[in-house]
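Researcher: Let's continue the batch. This sequence belongs to DUF3060 domain-containing protein, and it's 104 residues. Same format as the previous ones, please.
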Amino acid sequence: MPRRRIAAVLASAVLGLALLTGCGDDVSCGLDQCTVTIQRETNASVEVLGVEAKFVSADENTVTLDIAGEKIALTKGQQAVDVGGLMVTLTSVTPEAVQVEVSR
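Model: Same format as before. Here are the structure tokens for DUF3060 domain-containing protein:
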């Protein structure tokens, strides 16, 4: 019985590590939440939690992103938006980049 528990713990650790290693330089991940920075330039994109997030447009308070093929508009201070089972929140907008939090 202890061997099965050890195997289960190791399997969980490997799965968690696989999720974390899916994060790149523009993505900082915890167990089930990532902070994503996307440059404000044409065709800028990052992959997060298995989906691609692309920059579409932005102004001072609103950002439009294409996440997993679905265009969404996010506003600073707005509650999280559900996109394909992921919750997405706009955390900052600068002249160079936008930052969003993505969670499961």
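Researcher: Any comment?
Model: The mean pLDDT is 76.
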